């Protein structure tokens, strides 16, 4: 049984762009199958909890299949940590269910409020990509509903080309119904974190290379407003899961219990003038000053992995026009020079990001359209302002020249030409898409904007 809820305007997490879509919310897998029987001129697209930033989970004047009710756990092997669940299960569900048993996510993005199916579709990465790669490395198998109505299982051994087209395939090769995922064994719900404050970009990158092979997790906050001698300064956060013996004696009896925090909220859209160069400089300066180098700091997993999840609707802080997160990956070769060009270009054009995060990446999972590649990845949050997209187009050119690419899960405005230039395996993905969805039933605004099914011209 399916339910056509309404014709509604929705957005991604960045609140740009906006799209009128037909929303369906099936209660069970059978309802997902039934939904595909409806007539929709722009086809259908599965959607998780709406945390993709741009138009990856939008389908203007088409059907959106909300997967939030397809959220049952189906099997779990306590000895191996392999869980089989429906695609609408959220990362928060997995943590709350399995962390008390000593199992944690193998890879997690910066929010736990997203579904496992969406994470597979984006082949999400986390702070451990330099060590473990993206979530695709931990997916044992997938069960997909093809537009034909056929249900198929795929893995590295069974229908491998469909498997690798679906890992990072943005939900366009089939509707993921089930995921079999390998979890990570942990002893506690706590992290041991070493903070290292750096003076400039050279020291930031050098510290990454010197230290992060010794840690499972690493990430850097950058002060992208600082200029002169402080250009590229930041705070690096190296983390690992704490063992029971690491914990203070008072916490060893309940190693998975962490403090409950009162959620905060941004109740209204903040006015645009709040995020101006002066306020951004003040914020960055204060953050840098209050995060000195320290070692062996205990923090709970929420604090380390999901600092923004405790601020409900934090996307409202960017105002009514929303924001874009521009995230690229750059090869290590000439990485210092290319990162400098990006940050200098943004500063010269007075496009100051509110939030800047830098990580190192390792090898790809093999997903045909997966974003990760060995190199540096930097994510910059920009409030939408007049002239911003012209600046970002300049940054895109630097990425193209460097041999990098932009992250589809965050993108809202990249050109089709840029996409076709930077994703050289697109023809291989298109071959799979044509085979499993010859009529183009699964569509999205992102797919149309980037002309995913068109040959590059």
Quick take:
By secondary structure, this protein is α+β, with helices and mostly antiparallel strands.
Give the topology, please:
Elements (H helix, E strand, L loop, with lengths): L3 E8 L6 E7 L4 H7 L8 E4 L15 E4 L6 E5 L4 E5 L4 H8 L4 E2 L11 H7 L6 H4 L6 E7 L5 E5 L4 H7 L8 E8 L1 E2 L4 E9 L2 H11 L5 E6 L11 E8 L22 E2 L11 H13 L4 E7 H5 L5 E2 L10 E8 L4 H14 L6 E7 L13 E9 L4 H15 L2 E2 L9 H7 L3 H11 L8 H5 L8
Parallel strand pairs: 2-4, 3-4, 15-17
Antiparallel strand pairs: 1-2, 5-6, 6-10, 7-11, 8-9, 8-10, 12-14, 12-16, 13-14, 13-19, 18-20, 18-21, 19-20
Helix pairs in contact: 9-10
Index terms:
alpha+beta, 457 residues, 25% helix, eight-stranded antiparallel sheet, five-stranded antiparallel sheet, globular, 13 helices
Structural class of the secondary structure composition? alpha+beta
Strand content is 25-35%
Main β-sheet description: 8 strands, antiparallel
Evaluate the radius of gyration: 21 Å
The beta-strand count equals 21
Rounded mean pLDDT is 94
Helix count equals 13
Low-confidence stretches: none
State the shape: globular
Distance, first to last CA = 43 Å
Spatial strand sequence of the major β-sheet: 16-12-14-13-19-20-18-21
How would you characterize this protein structure?
It is a single chain. The chain has 457 residues and is of the alpha+beta class. Helix content is 25%, strand content 26%. It contains 13 helices and 21 strands. The strands form five sheets. An eight-stranded antiparallel sheet has the order 16-12-14-13-19-20-18-21. Strands 5-6-10-8-9 form a five-stranded antiparallel sheet, with helices on one face. The longest helix has 15 residues, at 388-402. The model has no long low-confidence stretch (mean pLDDT 94).
């Amino acid at each position: 049984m399916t339910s056509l809820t309404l014709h509604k305007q929705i957005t991604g997490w960045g609140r740009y762009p906006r799209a009128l879509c037909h929303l369906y919310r099936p209660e069970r897998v059978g309802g997902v199958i039934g939904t595909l029987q409806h007539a929709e001129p722009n086809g259908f697209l599965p959607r998780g909890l709406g945390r993709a930033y741009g138009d990856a989970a939008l389908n203007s004047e088409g059907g959106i299949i909300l997967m939030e009710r397809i959220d049952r756990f189906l099997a779990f092997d306590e000895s191996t940590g392999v869980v089989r669940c429906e695609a609408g299960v959220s990362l928060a569900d997995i943590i709350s269910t399995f962390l008390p048993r000593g199992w944690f996510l193998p890879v997690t993005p910066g929010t736990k409020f997203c579904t496992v199916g969406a994470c597979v579709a984006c082949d999400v990465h986390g702070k451990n990509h330099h060590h473990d790669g993206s979530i695709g490395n931990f997916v044992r198998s997938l069960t997909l509903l093809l537009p034909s109505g056929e249900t198929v299982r795929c893995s590295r051994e069974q229908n491998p080309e469909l498997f690798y087209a679906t890992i990072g395939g943005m939900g366009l090769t089939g509707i993921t119904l089930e995921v079999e995922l390998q979890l990570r064994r942990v002893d506690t719900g706590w992290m041991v974190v070493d903070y290292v404050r750096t003076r400039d970009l050279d020291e930031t990158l050098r510290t990454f290379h010197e230290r992060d092979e010794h840690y499972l997790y690493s990430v850097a906050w950058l002060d992208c407003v600082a200029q002169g001698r402080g250009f590229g300064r930041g705070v690096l956060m190296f983390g690992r899961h704490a063992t029971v013996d690491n914990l203070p004696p008072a916490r060893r009896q309940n190693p998975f219990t962490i403090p409950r925090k009162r959620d905060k909220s941004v109740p209204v859209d903040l006015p645009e003038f709040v995020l101006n160069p002066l306020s951004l400089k003040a914020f960055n300066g204060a953050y840098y000053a209050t995060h000195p180098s320290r070692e062996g700091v205990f923090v709970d997993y929420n604090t380390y992995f999901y600092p923004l999840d405790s601020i409900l609707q934090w996307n409202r802080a960017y105002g009514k026009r929303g924001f874009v997160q521009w995230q690229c990956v750059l090869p290590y070769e000439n990485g210092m020079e290319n990162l400098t060009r990006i940050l200098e270009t943004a500063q010269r054009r007075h496009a100051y990001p509110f939030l800047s995060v830098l990580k190192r990446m390792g090898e790809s999972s093999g997903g045909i359209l997966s974003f990760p590649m060995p190199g540096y990845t930097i994510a910059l949050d920009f409030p939408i302002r007049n002239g911003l997209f012209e600046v970002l187009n300049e940054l895109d050119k630097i990425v193209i020249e460097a041999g990098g690419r932009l992250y589809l899960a965050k993108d809202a405005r990249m050109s089709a030409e840029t996409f076709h230039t930077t994703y050289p395996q697109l023809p291989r993905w298109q071959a799979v898409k044509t085979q499993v969805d010859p009529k183009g039933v699964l569509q999205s605004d992102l797919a149309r904007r980037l002309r995913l099914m068109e040959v590059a011209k």
